[in-house]
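Case 346 in the screening queue. Each case pairs one protein sequence with one candidate compound; here the compound is glycylglycylglycine. For every case the pipeline is the same: read the inputs, emit a complex structure as tokens, and attach any notable structural observations.

Predict complex for case 346.
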Amino acid sequence: MALIAILPGDGIGPEVTAEARRVLEALALDLAFEEAAVGGAAYHATGHPLPPATLDLARRADAILFGSVGDPSCDALERHLRPEQAILGLRKELTLFANLRPAKLFAGLEDASALRPEVARAIDLLIVRELNGDVYFGEKGMRTTPTGLRQGYDLMSYDEAEVRRIAVAGFEAARRRRGKLCSVDKANVLETSQLWRDVVVEVSADYDDVALSHMYVDNAAMQLVRNPGQFDVIVTGNLFGDILSDQASMCVGSIGLLPSASLDAEGKGLYEPIHGSAPDIAGQGKANPCAAILSAAMMLRHSLGLPEAADRVEAAVAAALVNHRTADLGGDCSTRTMGDAVLAAL
Ligand code: GGG
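Case 346 output:
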């Protein structure tokens, strides 16, 4: 029996993970579920956003289903106590360095895309975002300049081993897909990006079957809306991947549709919608649970070795979206009704 850790988190996290759990339960697989608090919810209960019991569960589990973190009532806390530290801590503690963020337009959602229908229909891409380095984990702080000004700083750094392992993840993903890898950096300005580019080129020697290209991140942002059909797999750093994947989500209709898998070297994974806690709609039953449900499908595929079950869940979401839309897609379905529609289509 596989143990699934459910970490619902804050805001809409509990609502969307509840629907994803219902879908997993409906598959009648040999799964056990254990739930723990994380983020602002955990801070309010225990004084820490990632309490030892939650980290222990995450370590014991075969896979983790994560909701979202972020709680405005924690905004004034010191940085190490803020809800977001929980997800950063989990990624670092469990060495979840490879974040897979697929974006594909579901049939019938052309009108929800921010792009023209013929452009949106061409989207079928995967962003491979590095998750353990970059400005998120570099030295950071607040200091005073010699002239008395407050100055914030976040050190951007990557070593070659960090770049190599995410480059390998990108090439492997491209090999399993259409054989195209675009590495996104800012090598004309940043030292980290120059190293990134050099290492990606070194790794490419082992992947003759993958066509490698490079793109500056500013151009990549433009190309994502101009001609997204050109992309198969994008491999990029933590910050650039965070931004580009939110942009990609609007190209396919909503951030409520994009799942993600954060994997270690052995395939253990944390699965979460890319969206945050959306405190403005929390508790109202308005959130789109599709990204969480699709994250559960990624869990079935990547951590539990159940690709047929993953296919079933993805097909059920596609079928449900034909006649059901939550508010983010211009409809009036509740979170529960959308979950019911996916269950009915399973
Ligand atoms: N489910 C995604 C989530 O909760 N995001 C909130 C957040 O702070 N994310 C930071 C990040 O993705 O780097």
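Case 346 observations:
- Residues 68-70, 84, 87, 242, 272-276 surround glycylglycylglycine (CB under 6 Å).
- The chain has twelve helices and twelve strands.
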